[in-house]
TrEMBL record:
<dbReference type="InterPro" id="IPR006442">
    <property type="entry name" value="Antitoxin_Phd/YefM"/>
</dbReference>
<dbReference type="InterPro" id="IPR051416">
    <property type="entry name" value="phD-YefM_TA_antitoxins"/>
</dbReference>
<comment type="function">
    <text>Antitoxin component of a type II toxin-antitoxin (TA) system.</text>
</comment>
<dbReference type="InterPro" id="IPR036165">
    <property type="entry name" value="YefM-like_sf"/>
</dbReference>
<protein>
    <recommendedName>
        <fullName>Antitoxin</fullName>
    </recommendedName>
</protein>
<comment type="similarity">
    <text>Belongs to the phD/YefM antitoxin family.</text>
</comment>
<dbReference type="Pfam" id="PF02604">
    <property type="entry name" value="PhdYeFM_antitox"/>
</dbReference>
Length: 83
């Protein structure tokens, strides 16, 4: 794994991208802490899955009062009026 600080990454971005494309694990740090990992697009194992219509049918319940107005106290909180 190659670790570089933000200043080094700024100066050598093109070569770091080439290294990541070649399979090298490149991590960029800020203040000594890892903050970014360079990986090629499409390199993750996660593939988007198709959603199956009705897959939650019978597993969840929407309460009868779901669409009722929220209590005024909660609305004040959402509006930032409560301290």
């Amino acid at each position: 794994m190659r670790t570089v600080n933000l200043s080094q990454a700024d100066s050598h971005l093109a070569s770091l991208v080439d290294e990541a494309l070649a399979g090298e694990d490149v991590v960029i740090t800020r203040g000594g802490r890892p903050v970014v990992r360079l990986v090629p697009v499409g390199a993750t194992d996660e593939q988007p899955r198709k959603r199956q219509f009705g897959q939650w049918a019978g597993r969840i319940k929407v309460h009868d009062n779901f669409d009722d107005p929220l209590p005024e106290e909660m609305m004040r909180t959402f509006r930032g009026e409560d301290a």
